[in-house]
């Protein structure tokens, strides 16, 4: 665990001094933990394979309350929190989360803001919003302002390493078991070198879920633009309505080329670490729905700005992965399409944290129980078994 000292930081009084009556609560400490959870079986998408997932947890304390945030990525994010962020957050008012977010962004200017540093900022920003809501005794969605009571979700997994039975079981668990009417599988196996198997798996998925559910696919940037356009003919025949990252989101022009030629909605944005990245995707006409990941883009502070940017372009936004961290922010924006109920993250979040949401019927209802903050808490006994830093 690690903590930042308050002395000498903006908003701090004398080191160790209690705030005067009526003063805002100030952040007293920022703590981190690194947890690594093995997958149930080997997993892969079109461009990456993995057998474990690392969670970097951030706790922020003030006024007798504790806020919780986390991100998925490199353990190095914990080092960024300790070395670059804790000092600029500690001693600040717990009310002024956007100011803390800006201070964190400035603090990592020379440490490369996109990438691992953005993961670190995201975890702390989420913890700060959770802290503020807990100090006020409010569900986070009520602090942010509710635009909807329910957040639609889609089941996501269908890894390229799955055999037929594993894929069918997972899809049925979502559709028949939980009543989720939209599901997604991975395609683009081995950097797009197995298109015949991709198409067979799409057809099998359609047979499994029937005609009453929406079918999405995610290539994780595995295809070339022309290849994606050719394959989209089959996707259209199977009623696929969501074609995620047919080509890399680093190439907005390629996404726009595919978007102009295919019927399924083309989507991307999960690798956006700064607000200008999303502006570039929108300006290029690259997406029909903009994705953003609250654990990567800079936390809730920036995720809400991304949603507003998308709304200004007449575009919906979808939350990428980390469903329990997205839910409250997702319920606060009017142009939300849905939230990704990602298999790995749902499993990990239900394992390591209490307060999980129920997706039955295809939607979650953040804040419905009245718990302050986002309602999640680290299960310390379980977390200790997976601690890796």
From TrEMBL:
<dbReference type="InterPro" id="IPR036849">
    <property type="entry name" value="Enolase-like_C_sf"/>
</dbReference>
<feature type="region of interest" description="Disordered">
    <location>
        <begin position="363"/>
        <end position="389"/>
    </location>
</feature>
<dbReference type="InterPro" id="IPR029017">
    <property type="entry name" value="Enolase-like_N"/>
</dbReference>
<dbReference type="InterPro" id="IPR046945">
    <property type="entry name" value="RHMD-like"/>
</dbReference>
<dbReference type="GO" id="GO:0000287">
    <property type="term" value="F:magnesium ion binding"/>
</dbReference>
<keyword id="KW-0479">Metal-binding</keyword>
<keyword id="KW-0460">Magnesium</keyword>
<dbReference type="Pfam" id="PF13378">
    <property type="entry name" value="MR_MLE_C"/>
</dbReference>
<feature type="compositionally biased region" description="Basic and acidic residues">
    <location>
        <begin position="379"/>
        <end position="389"/>
    </location>
</feature>
<dbReference type="InterPro" id="IPR018110">
    <property type="entry name" value="Mandel_Rmase/mucon_lact_enz_CS"/>
</dbReference>
<feature type="domain" description="Mandelate racemase/muconate lactonizing enzyme C-terminal">
    <location>
        <begin position="164"/>
        <end position="264"/>
    </location>
</feature>
<dbReference type="GO" id="GO:0009063">
    <property type="term" value="P:amino acid catabolic process"/>
</dbReference>
<dbReference type="GO" id="GO:0016052">
    <property type="term" value="P:carbohydrate catabolic process"/>
</dbReference>
<dbReference type="Pfam" id="PF02746">
    <property type="entry name" value="MR_MLE_N"/>
</dbReference>
<dbReference type="GO" id="GO:0016836">
    <property type="term" value="F:hydro-lyase activity"/>
</dbReference>
<feature type="region of interest" description="Disordered">
    <location>
        <begin position="1"/>
        <end position="24"/>
    </location>
</feature>
<dbReference type="InterPro" id="IPR029065">
    <property type="entry name" value="Enolase_C-like"/>
</dbReference>
<dbReference type="InterPro" id="IPR013342">
    <property type="entry name" value="Mandelate_racemase_C"/>
</dbReference>
<protein>
    <submittedName>
        <fullName>Putative mandelate racemase</fullName>
    </submittedName>
</protein>
<dbReference type="InterPro" id="IPR013341">
    <property type="entry name" value="Mandelate_racemase_N_dom"/>
</dbReference>
